[in-house]
Predict the structure.
Amino acid sequence: MAGTMTTVVARVAPVAIALVTVACVEPSPSGRGTASPAPLRTARLTPSPAPSPTLLPREGCSLGLTRNMRVCPASGPEGTVVTIEGVGCSPAADGHVTLSFRNEGWEPGTRGGAMPGRFHQDANGRFRITWTVPRRLAPIQDVGGGATTPGRYFFYTRPATCDYTPFEVTG
C-alpha cells in the first residue's frame, strides 16, 4: 500500500498535542495500478501529559535515573552535610513527602536507615533540605543498624515517587 503520513506536534502549555494525518492510496481490485485515493484520514487530537520536571546534572552531585532528585555532594564521610533537592515528587494526600536514607544490604555499607524528615513541597512541587549523614543508622525490620560504615546508600521519598539517588559514604 502506498501512502504518506504527516505528523504535526504543537505545544500548548502545559501539554503537547499531536495531530497525525494519513493519506493512503488503495490498490485497484486487479492489483495493478491504483484506484482513486482513499479518503483522507485525520486522527483525533490527543493531549499527552507535559514532560515531568527534571533537575540538571551538577558537578560533584548525584542524580537519580529519572533526574527528579539530586544530592550534593555525591559522597563524603559520616557527618557530611548534604543538600537534597527534588522536583515533581508527588506528595501524599496530606501534602507531605517523607525522605529516607538507607542501605538495604545489597550494597556495601551498614544495613540500616535514617529519616531526614517529613516536609511539604512548594507550590511548584519542589523541595530543598540540608541534612547531616548520621554516625549511626537504625535497623530495618529489626535487621542491621549500627555505625555508618563506608559504602553506598540511597535517598528516596515516600510516597515512592522520586528516584533512588545514591550517596557514597567514604572512610
Remarks:
- Residues 4-24 have pLDDT under 50 and may be disordered.
- DSSP finds no helices and 15 strands in the chain.
- Residues 24 and 84 are 53 Å apart (CA to CA).
